[in-house]
From TrEMBL:
S-adenosyl-L-methionine 2 binds at Y76, C77, A78, G122, T123, Q183, R195, D220, A254. Binds 1 [4Fe-4S] cluster. The cluster is coordinated with 3 cysteines and an exchangeable S-adenosyl-L-methionine. It is found in: Cytoplasm. Transmembrane segments: none annotated. Its EC number is 1.3.98.3. S-adenosyl-L-methionine 1 binds at Y64, G121, E156, I340. Belongs to the anaerobic coproporphyrinogen-III oxidase family. Its main location: cytoplasm. SMART domains: Elp3. Pathway: Porphyrin-containing compound metabolism; protoporphyrin-IX biosynthesis; protoporphyrinogen-IX from coproporphyrinogen-III (AdoMet route): step 1/1. This is Coproporphyrinogen-III oxidase. NCBIfam families: hemN. [4Fe-4S] cluster binds at C70, C74, C77.
Length: 467
């Protein structure tokens, strides 16, 4: 693939009027086609067939495990979760997860390496140490986990529920990367989102992770939360930079109370306006780049020696349902309620309702409730969107060679839709090469939308705003 041009300083990219004009709603493209295109005509038998087909091209496996439980609800959260303080309620769920593992692994060649593993939620550290150990052992028994130093085994951590013993246990199990939720360090903001988390909790875990030798660590921040101001968020960023995490995700809060009930506890009057949010984004980019972080794209930042930054330089980075990822050449198997798989030429999704997930597995079948099998056009556009978002560049000639067709001719509609963005200096065309400019990096979701042939048929309001 074409190697992207080096980025210019972000100060050359900042044009508030232009950014506001392009700040529309659109997909994050963790998949293409996006989830609204999944349909109920795709079921468990279709997913089983996709799993079996994938053995013919035995790529490594990436496993995602969804643990939906949380002890308390954060008001901003849009994840699939169940609020409870009783860890025993997780036992029936872990039993169903094991049934799903058995049914899934039967279709797979056991020699395929599990190069990537991610536990998300909810709050995976809701589980007791014993439950985490049992789940890890079951995954190993069903799929055969890897001991390779190149494996990427990560877990999402709530610093309010984890301590030094938790990290030592996770390392002993085989995890080598951590993702810590922080969101903001300002006490007033924390109170408003029902997530009171003193800095010392986060800092002590980072220090211990460093001492234990975890290969990477990510912190999640959110801008646009109630009571945030550009100066208060800059203060949080300064403290985070002092902690020097190898990776950072700085997300834009999407306030969609009609879809996510906990968000109704947030007063809209307390939310920063669009000008303040743009100022927070600008501050984030400038402060992090000044501190030596590479702006990977969208909301991701990494230190130059982190594996994510290395993967981008090598052109091997990809996007999946956890965001940017270092392990692109793999089939993703999602386990648990609401989990989504990307296997062979298909996507398959489990039910979002726990009762439906349990009922399917109790009936002895995979819980797939919907999905899609990709056409050639879908596969070509997925590849184009992925490379554009990961490399900040797209080589149409190389794309055509990969699919044995004329990609420039095939994607003529996308190139036509890109014309205004070229005129506004968001992306440049050099023959068969498209190169995203520094200002275009901020609007990469909008540029990707030009390649989305299905978007005009979907309701835009279901998506968050780009900035």
């Amino acid at each position: 693939m074409f190697s992207p041009l080096p980025a210019l300083p972000s100060t050359q990219a900042w044009d508030p009027a232009l950014l506001k004009r392009y700040d529309i709603s659109g997909p994050r493209y963790t998949s293409y086609p996006t989830a609204p295109s999944f349909h109920q005509g795709f079921g468990a038998e279709d997913f089983e067939a996709a799993l079996a087909r994938s053995n013919a091209r035995p790529r490594p496996l990436s496993l995602y495990v969804h643990v939906p439980f949380c002890r308390r609800i954060c008001f901003y959260c849009a994840c699939n979760k169940i609020a409870t303080k009783n860890t025993q309620l997780a036992e029936p769920y872990l039993s169903r997860l094991d049934r799903e593992m058995v049914l899934t692994s039967r279709q797979l060649d056991r020699s395929r390496e599990v190069s990537q593993l991610h536990w998300g939620g909810g709050t995976p550290t809701f589980l007791t140490l014993g439950q985490m150990g049992d789940l890890f052992d079951r995954l190993d028994a069903r799929f055969g986990l890897s001991n390779s130093p190149d494996r990427d085994y990560s877990i999402e951590i709530d610093p309010r529920e984890a301590n030094v013993l938790t990290l030592r246990h996770l390392q002993a199990l085989g995890f080598n990367r951590l993702s810590l939720g922080v969101q903001d360090l300002d006490p007033k903001v924390q109170q408003a989102i029902n997530r009171v988390q003193p800095r010392v909790l986060t800092e002590s875990l980072i220090d211990e992770a460093r001492r234990l030798g975890f290969r990477s660590l990510n912190l999640d921040l959110i801008y646009g939360l109630p009571h945030q101001t550009p100066s208060s968020f800059a203060a949080t960023l300064a403290q985070i930079i002092d902690m020097a995490p190898p990776r950072l995700s700085v997300f834009n809060y999407a306030h969609l109370p009609s879809r996510f009930a906990p968000q109704r506890r947030i007063r809209e009057a307390d939310l920063p306006d669009s000008d303040a949010k743009l100022a927070m984004l600008q501050t984030s980019i400038e402060m992090l780049e000044e501190a030596g972080y590479v702006h990977i794209g969208m909301d991701h930042f990494a230190l130059p020696d982190d594996s994510l930054a290395s993967a981008q330089r090598l052109g091997t980075m990809t996007r999946n349902f956890q965001g940017y990822s270092t392990h692109g050449n793999s089939d993703l198997v999602g386990l648990g309620v609401s989990a989504i798989s990307r296997v062979d030429d298909c996507y398959a999704q489990n039910p979002t309702a726990l009762a439906d997930y349990e009922a399917a597995l109790d009936a002895g079948r995979l819980a797939t409730v919907k999905g899609i099998r990709l056409s050639l056009d879908d596969q070509l556009r997925r590849r184009a969107i992925e490379r554009l978002m990961c490399d900040m560049a797209l080589d149409l000639e190389a794309l055509g060679h990969e699919f044995d067709l004329d990609a420039t001719l095939w994607l003529d509609d996308a190139l036509t839709r890109l014309a205004p963005s070229i005129e506004d200096g968001l992306i440049e065309r050099h023959g068969s090469r498209l190169v995203v400019t520094p200002r275009g990096r901020l609007l990469i979701r909008h540029l990707a939308m030009a390649f989305d042939a299905r978007l005009p048929k979907q309701a835009q309001e279901r998506y968050s705003r780009i900035l």
